[in-house]
Amino acid sequence: MAERALTEEAMQAGLNDIRLPPGAPGGIAAELLAAAGLGIAAALILAALLRLVTRVRVARPARPDPVEPEIDEGTEDARRRAALRRLKRDDPARYATLAAGLYRPGGLPAPEVLE
Known about the structure:
58% of the residues lie in helices and 0% in strands. By secondary structure, it is mainly alpha-helical. The termini are far apart. The model has no long low-confidence stretch (mean pLDDT 77).
């Protein structure tokens, strides 16, 4: 606690708004500009915080299936890879039965079998 009681004058001086010294250049205009600057800074900080909190998530459009263009390619390997990807996506159980033999020599089935 305070060792001595505050006088009324000291209390009134403490309650006054913080102001620039009377001899400061600009006078009342400088005080108004300083207050406006503080207000703008506070508004910018508040706007940034609100923007983070209220961000709207935009749904991204679905990407085209990368399997489809490869099927139209002329090479047999590309058609097999595309057919295997489609089989893995559409029928995982059937893909699991074929997956064991895929890496053996001659283990790749014909694209017609996969389609």
